[in-house]
Write a structure and sequence with these properties.
By secondary structure, the chain is mostly helical. It has four helices and no strands. It has helices at 2-9, 18-34, 36-42, 47-69.
Length: 71
């Protein structure tokens, strides 16, 4: 929170509700694992494919975070 406030004052990040941001971030990280059975069936995927999707998701989450935070 302190780092966010410092960056906000410097204009490095946009003003957002930190609690809402954290809930959204946690949801984006946790949901795929909770929905794994549905995702495997929907995409006709294997556990190995799911693992690959989750590894690729790391970069996707970084993009989303930048889009949300960077003015």
């Amino acid at each position: 929170m302190e780092s966010y406030q410092d960056d906000l004052q410097k204009g490095k990040v946009r003003e957002i509700n930190p609690a809402q941001f954290m809930m959204s971030l946690m949801g984006m990280c946790v949901f795929p694992f909770l929905a794994k059975p549905i995702m495997l069936q929907s995409f006709n995927a294997t556990d190995e494919m799911f693992e690959y999707m989750m590894l690729a998701r790391i970069d996707e989450l970084k993009k989303y975070i930048r889009l949300l935070l960077v003015p």
